[in-house]
Amino acid sequence: MPVMPFKRNVVDDVVILADRLAVSKPSQWLQRLRLPLFAGKVSAGFPSPAADHIEKNLDLNELLIQKPAATYFVRAQGESMLGAGIHPNDILVVDRSLEPVAGKVVICALNGELTVKRLTCENEQWTLKAENPDYPDIVLTDDLDLVVWGVVTNVIHAV
């Protein structure tokens, strides 16, 4: 199989990647910041009266980051993943501790170039799938150099 899994417990690889991509490693600056999470839900259709009740305080680090030592952020560019909800300049939360299995969106180095795509496998053929019909899928073959750098767990998208 041409999919080369990332090396586990190798912080140096993440630091090298972070330097190369100018990304942030949350474990270097992680601190608690709890903001109010209101108990009511916001209607995206017909408005309803809002309850003035705080359910709890929410820490975005706890919500978005499961394993700080294995997590980094990277900014997306291009439009190949629009169908997955990834837009240009979105911040991707990437976890290196997760297994890069079929169906997951992954960050990988393909022949030295970094990309974000959905990893798929059909009839034992692995593919990096674009989530935009204007972009081709990449069929993985033995002659390609592929290193998976982690699994995208969340997308931070400005409105």
Describe the structure using short key phrases.
mainly beta; 10% helix; globular; 159 residues; 2 domains
Write the layout of secondary structure elements.
Layout (H helix, E strand, L loop, with lengths): L10 H11 L12 E5 L15 E6 H5 L6 E5 L15 E5 L9 E6 L2 E10 L2 E5 L8 E2 L6 E11 L3
Antiparallel strand pairs: 1-2, 3-4, 4-9, 5-6, 5-9, 6-7, 7-8
Characterise this structure:
This protein has 159 residues and is mainly beta. The protein folds into two domains: 11-27 and 66-156, Umud Fragment, subunit A, CATH 2.10.109; 31-64, no CATH class. The chain contains two helices and nine strands; from the N terminus they run αββαβββββββ. The protein has helices spanning 11-21, 60-64, and strands at 34-38, 54-59, 71-75, 91-95, 105-110, 113-122, 125-129, 138-139, 146-156. The strands form two sheets. The chain has a seven-stranded antiparallel β-sheet with strand order 3-4-9-5-6-7-8, with helices on one face. Strands 1-2 form a two-stranded antiparallel sheet. Strand 7 and strand 8 form a beta hairpin. The longest helix has 11 residues, at 11-21. The protein is globular.
